Amino acid sequence: MAKKEAEALGISVAEFVRGAIRRAFPLTTRPVWMRYAGLVESGNPRSSQSVDDVMYGFKVLLVAIAALLLSAGVASAATAQKWTPGWDNFHEPLNYQKSKLTWSVNPSKRTLTVTYTLVSATPNKLYQAGIHIFCETFPKTFGQFPTDTGGGSCPTYTRQGVTKSAAGLFVGVVTTDIHGDGSFSVVVGPIASGAYDVEFWARDGAGGCDGNQGSDFQSPGPKWGDATTITIPESDDSYGTESSAT
Predict the structure, then answer these.
(1) Are residues 62 and 88 both part of a single domain?
(2) Are residues 152 and 168 in the same domain?
(3) Which residue range is the domain that position 57 belongs to?
């Protein structure tokens, strides 16, 4: 519930929780117990001696619960991106209005969660799901997944008239049903802190490329090299996102 409310307001969950506590317990110069004076008849003639403990203790409990939730590492609100036709196959069927690519970052765990959703694609088909990270050099892994750099220079590709260097990795497969609908989610990490310019893609088959490279869909697109910048923070309070196109 808190995550949905924060997303609707366009703020982080941490900010939402802090605001909720401030609204529930606004600053006042009066003693806390005075706000409730005369509202409750306990029958205990000595209740005034313990009311402060009850009210202050309740406030401390709420603050402690909020701190516990935040320290557990709440993921950033998911970012949804549209698919566009890939750089090889421009006529692969897809409902581009309903299909989407969503991702979110968990700051404390330094993980990236990605969900590939295809609607009205080719029925009963396997689509290889992957990521390109634009770079000059790159480590041999991105989270738990190996890249095609082997830990060195990033290969150079020319697609749609654009030449860029990138590290590629496969993260899984989207399998569509008889209606052409399918989705796949993956958690990548832990990932080294830093900013990554990435493009997500889905292509024909599984386990590699087909004869014509087989890129069916890309996001953000619409051209190879258009990227989303994803930042993996060093701490909970430093994460952020930014989109860029080249």
Answers:
(1) no
(2) yes
(3) 2-71
CA pair distance 42, 50, nearest whole angstrom: 12
Which of 20, 55, 71 is the endpoint of a domain?
71
- Rounded CA-CA distance 200/111 in Å is 16
Cα separation, 175 vs 187, whole angstroms:
18
65 and 127 belong to one structural domain:
no
| Residue recorded with tokens 């993996």 | 232
DSSP per-residue codes, 35-75: GGTTT---S-TTGGGTHHHHHHHHHHHHHHHHHHHHHT-PP
Q: Which of 196, 195, 241, 199 is nearest to 220 (CA)?
A: 199
This prediction's pTM: 0.67
pLDDT tens, N- to C-terminus, the chain (246 residues) = 666 666 666 677 777 677 767 666 666 665 555 555 555 555 666 665 665 555 555 555 555 555 544 444 556 789 999 999 999 888 999 999 999 999 999 999 999 999 999 999 999 999 999 999 999 999 999 999 999 988 999 999 999 999 999 999 999 999 999 999 999 999 999 999 999 999 999 998 865 554 445 899 999 999 999 999 999 998 654 444 444 443
**Rounded distance between C-alpha atoms, residue 129 and residue 101, angstroms:** 11
107 and 60 within one domain: no
